[in-house]
Specification:
The structure holds 2 protein chains of 2 kinds.
Chain A: E1 5-7, E2 10-13, E3 19-24, E4 31-38, E5 42-50, E6 53-57, E7 64-68, E8 74-78, E9 87-94, E10 104-105, E11 109-113
Parallel strand pairs in A: 2-11
Antiparallel strand pairs in A: 1-3, 3-8, 4-5, 4-9, 5-6, 7-8, 9-10, 9-11
Chain B: E1 3-5, E2 10-14, E3 19-21, E4 24-26, E5 32-39, E6 46-52, E7 59-61, E8 64-69, E9 74-79, E10 88-96, E11 105-106, E12 110-115
Parallel strand pairs in B: 2-12
Antiparallel strand pairs in B: 1-4, 3-9, 5-6, 5-10, 7-8, 8-9, 10-11, 10-12
The chains are: A mainly beta, B mainly beta.
Chain lengths: ~110, ~120
């Protein structure tokens, strides 16, 4: 079975721009979660989607948004980029929402904001 | 509030040494799940183990073993006869059961360097 795929793997943007990251979950998995990893804050939960609905959201400003499509693929968007948004963005795939699902992570998208 | 603490920021060992990575968690919930993930330099988080709060049995998988003790809120990870390929950052994480969420709360990670 193919793992979680994320595109693009690397991205360089400038302040004020917006960016869209994509995640394709493991086949059959219906939930996708996103995490931000930075040296200062570590791994932080962004949001979780199940059946095209956002089930949970972390403590991030409204500039961070996401969505999930009917095929379970997910995108996250960051508008008006700030230098502090530079991070590794990890997508995790899991079977369903709620409960003790194990999350399987993709390779991440490394975003650099100049 | 829930929290995961990995007090060891970096550990350096020589190949074939045993090493234990510590994880202490805080939660008032009685049902929860604990995880360990490995993050090699490539960046992807690799799932290692999941444990629920009702199962305190220790687990062994090859050179890896895990010791879960609810009395001390700890879920420690031991690598026996370490190898250079074990070099990575290891994360302990907590997930609560119930409700429509799978949110993982991560510790700050322990960087393990295994020298040849």
């Amino acid at each position: 079975k193919a793992g979680v795929t994320q595109t693009p793997r690397y991205l360089i943007k400038t302040r004020g721009q917006q960016v869209t990251l994509s995640c394709s979950p493991i086949s059959g998995h219906r939930s996708v979660s996103w995490y931000q990893q930075t040296p200062g804050q570590g791994l932080q939960f962004l949001f979780e989607y199940f059946s095209e609905t956002q089930r949970n959201k972390g403590n991030f400003p409204g500039r961070f948004s996401g969505r999930q499509f009917s095929n379970s693929r997910s995108e996250m968007n960051v508008s008006t980029l700030e230098l502090g948004d530079s991070a590794l963005y990890l997508c995790a795939s899991h079977y369903a929402a709620g409960g003790p699902d194990t999350q399987y992570f993709g390779p991440g998208t490394r975003l650099t904001v100049l | 509030a829930q929290k995961v603490t990995q007090a060891q920021t970096e550990i350096s060992v020589v190949e074939k040494e045993d090493v234990t990575l510590d994880c202490v968690y805080e939660t008032r919930d009685t049902t929860y799940y604990l995880f360990w993930y490995k993050q090699p330099p490539s960046g992807e988080l690799v799932f290692l183990i999941r444990r629920n709060s009702f199962d305190e049995q220790n687990e062994i998988s090859g050179r890896y073993s895990w010791n879960f003790q609810k009395s001390t809120s700890s879920f420690n990870f031991t690598i026996t006869a370490s190898q250079v390929v074990d070099s990575a950052v290891y994360f302990c994480a907590l997930s609560l059961y119930g409700g429509a969420t799978n949110k993982l709360i991560f510790g700050t990670g322990t960087l393990l360097a295994v020298q040849p």
